[in-house]
Design brief:
Blueprint lengths: L14 H9 L13 E8 L4 E3 L1 H14 E14 L2 E12 L8 E11 L5 E7 L2 H4 L7 H12 L2
Parallel strand pairs: 1-6
Antiparallel strand pairs: 1-2, 3-4, 4-5, 5-6
């Protein structure tokens, strides 16, 4: 019989609150990220790997500068203990070319929460080649050609 004290299981994070925040994210609300993220949170995606609340805020602020009408729609979630995966569609329009077509990137986010319910790790997974590069002029044609060659 073990006398070791079991590790307490942290409370389930309030994922619905995080989802609501991201689905309603605006340039003004980015400053409220500290209500959801730990001050030492890490954010990783195909283009970034940053640590600290200010750096994470910078990623989301830049999104509003670089793209028109960016918005997230969470389409599913799996929560287990102090972590979750969110499936999402990211809708936006390019500012420099094909400014009229709404683009969509499909991806997922892995979020890890602290005992206080704050995000300590946010890692986004999405296929930059298929979801972004293939939609760009010039590069898109090359990416589609490479994909066709790889599959033949």
């Amino acid at each position: 019989m073990s006398t070791a004290t079991p590790h307490p299981i942290p409370p389930a994070p309030d994922v619905a609150r995080v989802v609501a925040f991201f689905e309603s994210l605006t340039p003004d609300s980015v400053g409220q990220l500290g209500l959801f993220y730990d001050r030492n949170a890490r954010f990783v995606d195909p283009f970034n790997d940053v640590q600290g609340l200010a750096a994470v805020e910078g990623i989301f602020r830049h999104m509003f500068v670089a793209l028109d009408e960016p918005r997230f729609v969470v389409t599913g979630q799996v929560v287990q203990g102090a972590q979750c995966f969110l499936l999402w569609d990211f809708h936006f329009r390019f500012k420099r070319f094909d400014t009229h077509t709404v683009q969509t990137i499909r991806g997922t986010s892995h979020l890890v929460f602290s005992d206080a319910g704050l995000v300590t790790l946010h890692r986004d997974y999405w296929d930059a080649a298929q979801e972004l590069y293939e939609k760009l002029p010039l590069i898109g044609g090359l990416m589609r050609w490479l994909k066709k060659r790889a599959n033949s």
